[in-house]
Amino acid sequence: MGNIGHLADGFASALTPMNLMFACLGVLLGTAVGVLPGIGPAMTVALLLPVTYNVDAASAFIMFAGIYYGGMYGGSTTSILLNTPGESSSVVTAIEGNKMAKAGRAAQALATAAIGSFIAGAIGTALLALFAPTIATQAVKLGDPSYLAIMVLALVAVTAVLGSSKLRGFISLFLGLAIGLVGIDSVTGQSRLTFGIPLLSDGIDIVVVAVAIFAIGEALWVAAHLRRRPQEIVPVGRPWMGREDWRRSWKPWLRGTAYGFPFGAVPAGGAELPTFLSYVTERRLTKHPEEFGKGAIEGVAGPEAANNASAAGTLVPMLSLGLPTNATAAVMLAAMVGYGIDPGPTLFTSQSDLIWTLIASLFIGNLLLLVLNLPLAPVWARLLRTPRPYLYAGILFFASLGALAVNLQWFDLALLLVFGLLGLMMRRFGLPVLPLIIGVILGPRVEGAMRKSLQLSSGDWSGLVSEPVAKIVYALIVLGAVGMLAVGRLRRPATQEVTS
Question: Are 145 and 454 in contact (CB under 8 A)?
């Protein structure tokens, strides 16, 4: 029986009343926890593990998959409405999505996020069903030098295009890289930037940093200017996307899917990198460059599609190799072990019924997300009519709750305040916040990939370009840098002529 036949059997099992109930429950829980900053799908799945051991394995994993996809969409909701990413992969969505909301187009931003998530998730799940073994085999052929080159490209590309000044962008990036260095060196065992505080030995959780920089920093910035400006009631706008919105969104949806699925399938890929690259691509290709930074719908459609396509891609190494590429996948693998299932290359043969039921449930969960969330877009958008003092008091409460829930330590609340003040100062001096978040997320990965590459080459720096993919990516970086310098030199005489 081929993959299509297995998938048909999976649908027959997933469409039973009991499994449909667990799919609905997972989607609702996932959306709810995605909306709350810091309380992500990984934590929710972990908290439900003891409860679900008395439930059939297929039903439990259907619910976990619903939580996973629902969390991806829920994180985009608060990114758009409140500039508060519920997940690190929703950070990019906040850039244009929140600007759209403030311009009275919150419903359109939520709609393009929901439809893009559905399209990308459906395509990604179809690719998972058809090509999972082959894609996983090809993905593991990429070594650390290639991963390193791709991550360096993401760091340079995203930092160079954000903000009014490239210098300020790189200052923000290096701040993020410094934060990512905090903790114990995995090779030497030495403490780095811990200042003698034992609680910093494990590093600083990205959720705490993201919530502080975005939510706390935004709340403090608004509070600082609240008395200077009159209360603004932001209009909700039309509840559905217009023809122009559809025209500008469908290509970013497809390009975001093309970014997200391969990066999710690559071990250690994650959803952050393709969302960053999708945003850069849409900013380069747009016919409306003047709208970027002010609420461009392409900047929401592309990254959200990349986010959900990456979620489907993440299941490729998890199901084919037993290799998790994010926290939620790791918890789901722990659940498999708890059920006595051996994750790895034999999973598609030893647990064929379970795996294909899970894949079929992803299609169902994706449709449920669209059906539930698209009609609710105007309802979510009405949150913007809440008076700002009450709204940002609520943000501070849930941000503090989310930060505390990460490790259940009071110290995270102190870090939340410190980084919240940093976010306020960055807004005050015009430093873009996204490069800092990128540095925190990718910094440890860049360091790990560089060290492994050098260890494999016995310390020879040529080991960093020992793979063809790495050489191609570094060549692209050099060409991009030369191109930016050339464009800068061409613009300078023109600017001088205008001023003279």
Answer: no
